[in-house]
Design a protein that fits this description.
Blueprint lengths: L4 H24 L7 H29 L1 H12 L9 H20 L1 H27 L7 H14 L12 H6 L11 H4 L5
Helix pairs in contact: 1-5, 2-3, 2-5, 4-5, 5-6
Length: 193
């Protein structure tokens, strides 16, 4: 849905505290906190797990779920418009779809690590997605490369390049769109304006 600037950027204010509170809960408020190295490893798995979730959400839900795909189509029609999920929806989805199952599977201490990692990954996704549609990143930078990948999804085929922060899962699942042969953005029409 189309969001106000405050609504669109609310996640930048909500998710960092979720990461910090999850970390504090793990180490200061439970009787037997996890070993720090184990917590960091599970945090890393949560972060990497987010990229997998990002890929599947975009591929399946955003492009095929009846109501959500219609809303996502609005983003494809006007990529610079502030269209997204309200912050409360993201927090609620993360809590029900990830944090509570992680708690049941891993126990509270390590669930905080997985949740903090997933929340950090989600925040990275929100930042990258905003930046590649709104900024002109430096040629050759990470943001420039992901911008070109994502522009192919918008302007060449919406049947591939579903990963925004990484192309790993597109490669694994065979949905990676081929990069054009060393031509400029202007020649390929892949720049996001």
């Amino acid at each position: 849905m189309k969001l106000s600037k405050l609504g669109y950027f609310a996640e930048f204010f909500l998710f960092p505290p979720i990461v910090l509170i999850s970390t504090a809960l793990a180490f200061f408020y439970i009787a037997s906190p996890p070993h720090p190295a184990t917590w960091v490893a599970v945090f890393g798995l949560g972060l990497a797990g987010w990229t997998f979730i990002e890929y599947w959400l975009h591929r399946v839900i955003f492009h095929h779920a009846p109501l959500i795909s219609q809303l996502h189509h609005l983003h494809h029609d006007d990529p610079r418009d502030l269209i997204g999920t309200p912050a409360w929806g993201s927090v609620l989805s993360g809590l029900i779809g990830f944090a509570l199952p992680a708690w049941a599977l891993l126990g509270f201490g390590l669930a905080t690590a997985a949740t903090a990692g997933m929340a950090a990954g989600y925040l990275w996704f929100v930042f990258v997605h905003y930046a590649i549609h709104q900024w002109q990143p430096r040629h050759g930078s990470y943001l420039y490369r992901v911008r070109l990948r994502h522009a192919q999804h918008h302007y060449v085929s919406d049947g591939g390049n579903f990963g925004v922060t990484t192309g790993v899962w597109d490669h694994v699942f065979g949905t990676e769109l081929q990069q054009p042969a060393r031509r400029s953005e202007r020649e390929t029409g892949l720049s996001v304006h």
